[in-house]
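<instruction>
Derive structure tokens from the sequence
<data>
Labelled lines for chain and fold
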Amino acid sequence: MPYAALVSLALAMGVALAVYLPVLSQSGRIVGSPILANAPFYLLGLLTTVAIAVAAGNRLSDFARLREVPGWMYLSGVVSALMILGSTFLIPRIGPGPFFVLLVTGQILTGALLSQMGWLGAPIDAVGLRKAAGLLLVVLGAGLVTIR
């Protein structure tokens, strides 16, 4: 896939996430519980994932290989649930703009740390002066957007 297509796909995913999380937040308001409102989204997410996997040619034996994944890696499901619940709680209180700026800032800072250290299989990419300046600008930008 050409690089421009990959960049476009990443941008589209950002757009989808920017719509998806406020919709979940709204559903939490309608149901009266952000926790309860998220349950059907996880069920539909599971069914969609299985359908896409089958459509992509995965077989039952491929699903069985999920047993090979180390147990601690399944904690990413807990992180996912907490992310969704956190967004349904925070978006109505701080607004989608500040929420997404802070979300992305956290991702950028953590990504820089993971790359610096080579943790979780990330290729080592040292934070030099230029990247450190960029990270500082990200933090300052987040501050400008979120400080009241």
The helical segments are 3-31, 34-55, 60-64, 75-94, 96-117, 129-146. Residues 51 and 58 are 10 Å apart (CA to CA). Residues 1-69 form one domain.
